[in-house]
Design brief:
heterodimer, A: about 550 residues, alpha+beta, MutS, DNA mismatch repair protein, domain I, DNA polymerase, domain 1, Dna Ligase, domain 1, 4 domains, 5-stranded mixed β-sheet, 5-stranded antiparallel β-sheet, about 25% strand, B: about 260 residues, alpha/beta, 8 helices, about 30% helix, globular
Chain lengths: ~550, ~260
Amino acid sequence: MQRRIACLVLPQFSVEVCLRAKPSLKGRHVAIAQGESRREIVCASRTSIGVVPGMTPKQARAACPGLVVVARDEPAELAATSELLNALETCGPLVEGSAPGICYFDAALLPCGEAAALGAAVSLATESGFTCAAAVADDKFTARCAAIVAGGGASIVPPGGSAAFLAPLSIGLLALAPGDADRLDLLGLRTLGQLAALPAGPLALRFGERARRYRELARGEDDEPIQPRSITAVYEDRFAFDGAVDRLEPVLFALRGCLATVAARLAGCAQTCDRFDIVLEFSAETASVPVLLAEPTASADTMFHLARIALESREMLESIAAIAVRVTPCGQTPPQLSLFDGTAASRKAALAATIARLQAALGREEVVTIVPVPTRSRLPERMQQVTPIESPRDLELAGAARSRVARIARSADADAPARVPVHNRARVISQVRAHEPASAALEPGSIAHKPVPANGAIAPTGRRSGAAAPARGAWAPALRLVDPPKPIASPAPNATRAGPFRLSESWWEQGAERDYYQLVDNAGALLLVFRDLRDGCWYLQGVFD
Amino acid sequence: MSTSVAELRSALERRWQGVVPHAAAPVRPGRASGIGDLDALLGTAGVPAGQLTELFGARSSGKTMIAFALLAAAMRDGALGAFIDPSKSFFAPSAAGAGIDLRRLIVVRPGDSAGVRRAADALVRGGACPVVVVDCSESPGALQTHHCARLVGQAEKTSTTLVVVSNGDLQAVASFASLRLRVHDLTPLWQEGSAGSDRLLGCVASVDVAKSRAIAPGRSVRFAAVLPDVAGTWPDLCGSAVDRHTLEGSTDSLQPAARA
């Protein structure tokens, strides 16, 4: 069957969504900037002459005096897209909202014809307050290009005419990788037709495998299907007891039945879930118990096992009048079973059970992952981020990513000596030299004490103590953090120490000015301490252990 | 003593009508600690899987460093790790410097001793984490005899390496541990800095085998650990690994300073 895809392009989508929310801006020059800090213009109204996407707000205001820069409102855009897709479902059976301001719908075999469908779509968008252009073609790329170049109204590319239609269009319509546009321009390739005429092999050799995709699109051979939006259904099953129940066994009995029903519905729709909620209905109130799964599943046994753990830890199981299970499909297919690793599924189930037990026993806030965030602050107590584990899948996904990286690293390491030329090594070493006094970034102060060995003689550099010829490896002394820093007495003037490393930051909020030292105290413990320059007191920040 | 042992042996032989065969317990291969010298010391037995290992020592002796190295070695193969941290002293940059993949490390921060026990029980029983480290340095009463008995039984079932970090005052843990390593004498290594101030380059730690079912107690090893970044505290985003290599190359300027 011949594919026919209609595309609706709304070039002013972000601006129009903004104007719907803030009608007072109508008639003014408006530009939409990405993110809270509004660093990059992504869309501008037609009247904003000279403003193009990619500008900074400052550049944009310089180009267009009187310009109002508004932060992009993504939730509002999502809501508007959903509203538009709802309307477009009257034009075609399958609708897709792939990106803000771009919608597709299936236009094959429409009873009223393509022109009528396009006209209806344009009028629907106009009624919703959007200016748009629409087109129909054999594939998504051609339809989008046709809508863009049409500039307004409707355009129809006849069946089989994609390549001919695309041939004179600019190569800039492709989503090119950074740098590719310049390289293609240097080669004199400026239209899609010129690119389509090139042989695939040499093109891929010169530009990489992505060039094959460029060529396919330029030839009107985009085989990407419409990915229709799915309506998320919530599956729910409820069991009401004859009287109030205060024991776990009947609750679990009812729960097993509810889960079996819900899991059967999920499996029947070829869907899975990665979490579900158990709703306990007491005589006067309800309580919801979330249960997280290690991977998307529709297995009632797995769900029941974790639900049992979650309920067993609850102390309040009095007067339960009814129990319900509420499942929202996660939109993912069940994971492919591994042929050679039969333990993977059981390992994931064990992880999910472990996390569930920990969270049930200790609370969600006490089962965490901690990662360093040195960019946020250089103060040790603010330098790490504690994140409660939301789902066991977070740990699994991190492991999968790590395995991929490790594989790549192994394959790179295998022939690393042959691939690192000498001049590159020299560059690395020079970088190291530049980096070596990294303490300079911490502004070493002027009162550094020279570490003095106990025998009173400063050992000369260039000679190593022979008593312990230490082996070297990839391990490191661990710092045990003391948070909040604990006040201590001033160290002895002759205490062995290194430093200071001066830290001064956040003067505009909770300011900190500290001189850090590594210090050996009277008991022989190696400490990280600092002197607060604001109050002159000494604090213990950590213990090397 | 030898006489009494001989008497006991003959009594047993009389009781059981024959010679009592004396067979050494089979040594199962354990986990690598991640520290070359320590692995060489422990031999094939390594850090035993499915059993309890105690790392003990005074404050600032280097025991946490060995626990981190063990976790990093286990996680290098893609396994998950767990660290029970009741004192909330876990410092992520330091752990990352030790090679731990922090996105795959479950850190449990219970508020009391009961929480420590519940967390250890859940982690060991689940079997999802091959290495579970329990930091009891500041929770001396967390594990009693019956807790240890249960944990050791669960660890054996799930082949979990249970590592308890302590100050050496946990009698129950000492009794149930199949491997006890005493860590002591963490000696700092100083290096003269280029900007006029000195810097801490690393440490030398000593480890004694206090108890083992596979090797003779009393053996010891010393090894050096190099700080991966400035002061072991402030990682450099650009190239801490490169910096480490430089530091490792400059061994001639190492000067361990004696304790004050």
